[in-house]
Amino acid sequence: METPNTPAGQPSLAPCVLRASEVAKLLGCGTSTFYRKRAALEQRGFPRRSPLLRGWHREAVQAWLAGHFGFAAAPTDPYSREASRKKLRNVSFKAKRHNGR
Q1: 2 Rama sector, left if φ>0, alpha if ψ -120 to 50, beta otherwise
Q2: Residues 6 or more apart in contact with residue 80 via CB below 8 angstroms
Q3: I need a labelling partner for 87 at 20 to 30 A (CA). Which of 1, 39, 69, 79 fits?
Q4: Which domain of life is it from (predicted)?
């Protein structure tokens, strides 16, 4: 993965594990919004948090974003950020109930 400060052909130094705040930023929302919508996102195939890594795998999150929202990294211009926020607002809070709940 190239970053603006990484020359082509050089390995990226970006960590492969994302924390909740970093995932939220990629989604264009706050951490609390991400936690509220996490179950609904996971029902749509969003990667689950890895207990071993204690976070989300960056490439898995980016692949999911590319497939669902049409971008693989945090949108940098305000119009892209606003578009991702609008799409995230449409994610329903209705999660499937499990056995008796």
Answers
A1: beta
A2: 71
A3: 1
A4: Bacteria
